[in-house]
Design a protein that fits this description.
This protein is of the alpha/beta class. About 30% of the residues lie in helices and about 25% in strands. The N terminus is likely disordered. Bound molecules: fe (ii) ion.
Length: about 350
């Protein structure tokens, strides 16, 4: 994840011009579409690490993003819809059966969104998940994880169902105009799109046209679980934060101090600082930064009033890896310790850097 490429740009076809961008994040594909006349736009399956890119792309086309659409509850990446919604003043769209409480517009089969002159028709295509949708716009269909290039979405994750996928594909999606271009939510081989005709002819999974053969094949795939499965489902289903989002928010609230600068200060002016070790007792006993005071993160709020009565102290917080200390420093700042700072790195980096340790 994290590496991004943007392709296409302004698309013209014989039917109608449409503003179109495909944003690639590892194997995840997301899309920005817009009406060139009215400059109304929508983003399909926005991904968490591309928030600045979507804003920049919408700005470069002069688009007003009205809809943020998730084709389904993703199990393998983090949706950015909830974070983007207030930035664009846009509506979050999902299928009627989506568990996400932040989806404010819920579509049924054949419901249509109007995006300027564009008409975006939703097809309910359960199978990969119960809440999967495909979106037909102009000359293309955004297939989510229902149909991939040379593959289909898996059916072994929560709410997946091979029988439903069979019906969604063979009775619904493949019955559409075969000239429609296929833009999926994933491709792991760097391909940007396909067409229904090509998929019907060449996609190995679509060659199993008998229901029993198809469902048996899907049940026997035996795939490994995607990375971040539980965290992605938890956050996408509930609108809650990922751990890294929470850490990034805390990091934005506190300043940091480098290991050498801290070491220099402890040598030259040790009384100017209160160094606070927020690890567990056993870790503290095994070795800590010279002069550090021990107050484990789990007891911080409980004991801070007695332990640190002076809110004007410069407090430098550290932990083992530099993450929990960031949360602890942010908590201290919220409590009014306005000079709380986190160490950039943790005890592990301190040890590896050869800095002095007190046991
Ligand atoms: Fe998916």
């Amino acid at each position: 994840m994290g590496f991004a490429v943007v392709c296409n740009g302004r698309l013209k076809d014989e039917r109608r011009a449409m503003i179109f961008e495909q944003v690639v994040t590892g194997g995840c594909l997301s899309y920005l579409v817009g009406c060139p006349r009215t400059l109304a736009g929508a983003i399909i399956d926005p991904e968490n690490s591309q928030i600045d890119r979507y804003k920049a792309l919408a700005g470069s086309h002069g688009l007003n993003i009205r809809y943020l659409i998730d084709t389904h509850t993703h199990a393998d990446h983090f949706s950015a819809s909830k974070q983007l919604a207030p930035m664009f003043a846009a509506t979050i769209v999902m299928h009627q059966s989506s568990p996400a409480p932040h989806a404010s517009l819920r579509l049924d089969d054949d419901d249509m969104l109007i995006v300027g002159d564009l008409r975006m028709r939703a097809l309910h295509t359960p199978g990969h998940t119960r809440d999967s949708m495909c979106l037909v716009v102009e000359d293309r269909v955004f297939t989510g994880d229902t149909l991939l290039i040379g593959g289909t979405g898996r059916t072994d994750l929560p709410t997946g169902d091979p029988d439903q996928l069979y019906e969604s594909l063979f009775d619904k999606l493949l019955a559409l105009d075969q000239t429609l271009l296929v833009y999926p939510a994933h491709d792991y081989k760097g391909r940007s799109h396909s067409s229904l005709a090509v998929e019907i002819a060449e996609n190995p999974r679509l060659q199993k046209r008998d229901r029993a053969d198809f469902t048996r094949m899907m049940r026997e795939l035996n795939l490994t679980a995607p990375m971040h499965l539980t965290e992605a489902l938890r956050t996408n289903m509930t609108g809650g934060q990922t751990v890294s989002q929470m850490l990034a928010e805390a990091a934005a609230e506190v300043p940091f101090i480098g290991l050498s600068e801290l070491n220099d200060r402890l040598v030259s002016r040790p009384n100017d600082l209160l160094v606070l070790d927020v690890r567990e007792e056993s870790a503290f006993r095994a070795g800590h930064i010279r002069g550090a005071r021990h107050l484990p993160r789990g007891q911080l709020e409980l004991r801070v009033n007695e332990e640190i009565p002076d809110p004007t102290l410069r407090i430098v917080v550290y932990c083992e890896f530099g993450k929990i200390s960031t949360l602890a420093a942010a908590t201290l700042r919220r409590l009014g310790y306005m000079r709380a700072t986190a160490v950039d790195g943790g005890m592990k980096a301190w040890r590896e850097g050869g800095f002095p340790i007190e046991a």
